[in-house]
Every structure is written in C-alpha cells, then in structure tokens.
Design goal:
With about 425 residues, the chain is an all-beta fold. It is about 0% helix and about 60% strand. The protein has no helices and 28 strands. It has strands at about 10-15, 25-35, 40-45, 45-55, 60-65, 70-80, 85-95, 105-110, 120-130, 135-145, 150-160, 165-170, 175-185, 190-200, 210-220, 230-240, 245-260, 260-275, 280-290, 305-315, 315-330, 335-340, 350-355, 360-370, 375-380, 385-390, 395, 405-410. The strands form 4 sheets. The chain has a 20-stranded antiparallel β-sheet, with no helix packed on it. A 4-stranded antiparallel β-sheet has the order 4-3-6-7, with no helix packed on it. The chain has a two-stranded antiparallel sheet with strand order 2-5. Strand 11 and strand 12 form a beta hairpin. The radius of gyration is 26 Å and the shape is globular. The termini are close together.
Amino acid sequence: MLPFVHHLPGDWRRTNAPFLRPSLVGTVPYSGRLPAGWQVEVYRGGELVAFDSVAMDGSFATELPVLYGENPVDLVAYGPFGETRTISRTFRVSSALLPKGRFEYALSGGGCRFAPCRATGNLDLRYGLSHRWTAQAGVDAFGRDSLGGLWHPYLSAIGSVTNSWTVQLEGVRRAFVRSGVNYEPSLNLRLFGEYTRFAGGVAEPILNPLNRRSQVSLSGFFRPDAHRDFLYLEGSADHATTASGSTAHLRIGASSQLGPVRWLPYGRMEREAVRGAAATTRSYAGFTAFLLPRVGWGRLLREVWVRTGFEIESLRRPSLATLTLARPVTPTTRLEVGVSWMRGLRGASFNLSLSSFLRSVRSFTTVDAPSGGPAALTQMVQGSVLYDRGAGSVSLVAGPSLPLRCRRARAPAGPDPGGQRQRVLG
C-alpha cells in the first residue's frame, strides 16, 4: 500500500512515510456472548488467527489482526457436548487510516505547472490516534505574481465509527469545509455522501477555481450476487451552486455479461441553471462493451481484445463513438490501435499505443492523430531504484517512483493551459 503524501507539482519532497506500507494495520477487539463452557476459534482464509474460551458469564473477547481493506473472518464455536456454531464477520479498514501511534510527515515544494501559481509548498502531518481514527494537519502555500501569496492551513480527521461506517471531516482556512460519510458493509455494497461549503472573499482562488459556493456529491454501488462479480449497479449524483446559478449531474449505470461480451450501459443527465434565464437540461444514453479474446478466432485474432463505446443525446443525436483493438505482440509488449469520434470536432481521431512491461522498467508510447490537426507523440517511462539496507545492494524494479515523461508535437509553441492542483491520498 502506498504511503499517504500530498502529490504536489513540486521539485522536491521529503517524507518518513514508507514507499510500501505493510498490509497489516494492527489488531481490533472483538467480543461476543455464547453459553458458558464453549471454545471459540477465529479463522481468516482457513488460517487460525485467534481463539478464546467463553467465561462463566457467557462473554468472550479476542484481538483480531486486520489488514487494509476487507477482512472476512469465520468464528467457529465448539460446545461441551459436540455442538458447533459458525459466525461470519467482515472487518473493514480504510486505506486512509494509520496504525495506532504512527506519526508521518511530508514536506514538498517547487514550481507550479499552471498559470495562476508561481510556486507552491506543502507541510503535511498525520498521526494514528487509535486503530479507528487518524488525524491530519498541515498547510498549503501558493505564491502568485500580482495577487499575493495564499496560505491554507488545514485540519482533518478520518475514522471508522463502526465496522461499516467511515466518516471524514476536513477544514481548510479560506478555502472550504468538507464532511463525508461512507457506508461499506462488504465489497458488494457501498454508499458515499459528501458535502462541501466553499469560502468566499479570495481573488482567483486556487483551491476553488470554479468559484463554487457549495457542492453535494452522492455515489453508490451494489452487486446482488457475490459469485457473479460482473453483475452490478452503480450511480452518482452531484449538485453545485455558484453566485450565478447551479449545475447538477446524474449518472446511472450497470454491468452484465452476455457470452463473451461484457456490457456496461448507462444513462446520464446534465442540468445548468443561470439566474434570470431558463434552466437547460441535456440527457444522454450510451454503453461500453468489451469483447474478450476467443480461441475460435484463429491464431492471429484469438488474442485480440476489443473495446467499443457509443453515446447518443436525447435518443436522437449521436455524440460519441469509439473502437479500440488490443493484442499482445510479445509476452511483455502490448499494442493498441483505436479510432474515436466526438460531435463538435472535425473528423475522427486515431491513436496508437505500445506498452512494454519489462523486469525493471515500464514504457508507454502513445501517438494521437486527430483529423485536421497535428499529431502528438507521448513517451513515458517508469521505474524504481530500491536500496536493500540489510544486503547493501541496489536493484531496479518496474514502478512509479521515478516517472519521466516527455512530449513532442508538431504544433506551434504556445502557453501550457496547465491543470488544477489536487490533494490526493494514495
């Protein structure tokens, strides 16, 4: 598991967070009641991880080792006369939690990659208050040429109130306050809700570039049959307000499998309301389909993987169409070719990508050629240098710790539109 650091567009970073975090978080207490004289054994994946005896008052308690993510366990209880009971439980641990007593820091800084900002820096501190709660504090700093610098101290806490409920509270001075609730009793059901209130009075804010006043976001996922992981429903909705009006987005999708084809149909809606004018609503329906390789296609095509997509607006006007074919060239190299069309753009766009996954490096080469526009070549290389202190050796492995990206395009030089800075928890 990756450490928790702020991925800022900077030139340097210092942190004591490990590059790979151990999966074991610690232990969680579990207690229950059974008839006196019973014995309880706890198994995870068929392995005995804890056991206890039921006291005379009918209570038992044990400490269960847990990992990040979902921890399904089976409690097998044995009675004095040969009785057997099995109790299944699932313990979930959020990836944003630190082990109890663990302190981590991250310090980064450097130049910005977008126009309103000249330089940026961040100090991030995290501490595991308990096996259920982690606190975070820090400050984001942005230097600007003419509008003056911005300082955004922040404070947040995330915790597992129960085994299924996780809450997060975050406040950033002169930026926003945010609260979120996540309900996830298993991998087959997840409900999430978040409310954000943005601060005003900041000229050209960096952490609120759309100048929003508030935003509500909801999302959900449901898989009715755990044994058929391809069958599920998902949806999301958000509503944001600004000084001039509001915007709303709604999306509902599903997944199913018919023979060798995985179908993902969806419908979505966009609504924009501006004060003093009638609201506009746009609706779309579409699908994404994956055709898995088939042995019967022959030696040349049996390893070909196909992805296609289509979207139509108001059931009348096609707005998007894509087709991608992929095939392994060698055991470590994969070739993809595709074509896409979007309404409003002149003609179709073609792309070709070559991915190589070698033992110590990953390489991604992509060529994009839109109709009537300049072609662009993107080359990305990823690798990691690992030092083994015990063995005193250095090794190279494929990974994201040393990314190098360069881009060449036959287009006139111009200003880089840049992007929006985001705080990401890895």
